[in-house]
Amino acid sequence: MKKILVTGGAGFIGSHLVRLLVNKYPNYSIFNLDKLTYAGNLENLSDVENQPNYTFIKGDIVNAEFIDQFFKEYKFDAVIHLAAESHVDRSISNPIEFVQTNVLGTVNLLNSSKSIWSESYQDKLFYHVSTDEVYGSLGEDGLFTEDSKYDPHSPYSASKASSDHFVRAYYDTYGMPVIISNCSNNYGSFQFPEKLIPLFINNIVNNKPLPVYGKGENIRDWLWVEDHARAIDVIFHSNKLGETYNIGGHNEWKNIDLIKLMCSIMDKKLMRDEGESQKLISFVKDRAGHDMRYAIDSSKLKKELEWEPSLQFEEGLEKTIDWYLSNEKWLKTVTSGDYRNYYESQYSNRQI
Ligand code: NAD
Ligand code: DAU
Predict the structure, then answer these.
(1) Is the pLDDT at 249 greater than 80, yes or no?
(2) Ligand 2: which of 98, 213, 284, 296 to mutate, most ligand atoms within 8 Å of CB?
(3) Whether 213 is catalytic
(4) Domains and CATH numbers, the chain
(5) How far is the CA of 86 from the centre of ligand 1 (A)?
(6) Active site (annotated) includes residue 132
(7) How confident is the model at residue 351 (pLDDT cuts 50, 70, 90)?
(8) DSSP label at 296?
(9) What would the pLDDT profile of 133-184 be if each residue is shown by its tens digit?
């Protein structure tokens, strides 16, 4: 049985990836290591938590001693590393936490992998999940390719860029088998409602203001989260060691246009008069260092590994809105912080 460690599996993208792997590969043992920060929620995985090929372990990647012991005990064949502090606004108010988790945490995982794989790297893999934000900001034209130069602007993207450099350094210096992917903005179910789409859905439902940064002219390239998980699965199995793949949705939206589309879909769903939710839009002070435009060229991934996004954005957005509307309880527990009790009730008596 192949032992695969997913870090950050209780988060947004991690939970979709863990679900995919547990269901698709009964012959793999999937271990989910997560510190359960405010962004980690085990309820995201309640549908797979009793599967025989799934194990959850609570732990902090910043704790080098713990990570080393943990790797020695389980001797993983592969690591898919998603655990991170992921919200740009939080990185502006608390950069140190991002350095600790995203940089130091990644190096701890690299060191422990190197140590348990010291006899041979045969059939081993360290897969690092990263972001398009490492490339900085685009002007009106052009796309980020795998050869775009790194130019991060926020403490979050600087910490992710640094972690990417460390992963490449372990490939160049120690020959460690690594792969990196850099993805654009994800959307879908189970995303913590601090990010644009779930935050605005929640605010529209509750008739709260929609805080649009600056003039709302920034552009993001949105990808359905399950398409990202599928891309990670394909890249993980590609054996393209030392390679980088960009993952994106070919789906650029100006924030204000996306927000107006959300408002209009939600007016219909909530049986409001057309235009009512738009009245909640409130332009606020811009995010510091706000990148203007992200857009991904994912032609390498399409050409080499035949991956393409599966869902049209309008369909995906409507599905996402439907999910949040019919999972009001999830949203309420997450926004109230009650989800933290779930771990205690599920795991306090369970020996792992
Ligand atoms: P998220 O914030 O929803 O989840 C992060 C998870 O990591 C949480 O479960 C959290 O508890 C866990 N974690 C945080 N610190 C930890 C620590 N010290 N030890 C162990 N676990 C810890 O993030 P996400 O949006 O799912 O992003 C996952 C990864 O994908 C990140 O590396 C992020 O940089 C990258 N990414 C995200 C997007 C996006 O649009 N969300 C796009 C591209 C890349
Ligand atoms: O591009 C990939 C990145 O996408 C990931 O690496 C990050 O982890 C993820 O958080 C996301 O970063 P963004 O900063 O692009 O996502 P966010 O949802 O925070 O913001 C999307 C856009 O919406 C951005 O231009 C800022 C704007 N915004 C966001 C919030 C939360 C607002 O106008 N108002 C808001 O309240």
Answers:
(1) yes
(2) 213
(3) no
(4) 2-187+223-247 (3.40.50.720)
(5) 5
(6) yes
(7) very low
(8) B
(9) 999 999 999 999 999 999 999 999 999 999 999 999 999 999 999 999 999 9
Indicate if the alpha-carbon torsion angle 82, 85, 88, 91 is positive or negative: negative
Instruction: Please name the amino acid found at residue 175.
Output: G
Q: Is the pLDDT of residue 352 over 50?
A: no
For the segment 90-131, what is each residue's pLDDT rounded down to a tens digit? Answer: 999 999 999 999 999 999 999 999 999 999 999 999 999 999
Whether 185 is in the pocket of ligand 2, judged by its Cβ within 6 Å, is: yes
Classify the C-alpha dihedral 326-332-337-342 as positive or negative: negative
Q: Measured in angstroms, how far is the CA atom of residue 15 from the centroid of ligand 2?
A: 20
Point out the catalytic residue in the list 34, 60, 85, 133: 133
* Whether the Cβ atoms of residue 75 and residue 124 lie closer than 8 Å to each other: no
Name the residue at shortest CA distance from atom 19 of ligand 2: 195
**Is 322 noted as a catalytic residue in this protein?**
no
DSSP conformation class of 286: P
In what order do the strands lie in the sheet containing 178-183? Answer: 54-58, 28-34, 2-7, 78-81, 125-131, 178-183, 244-247
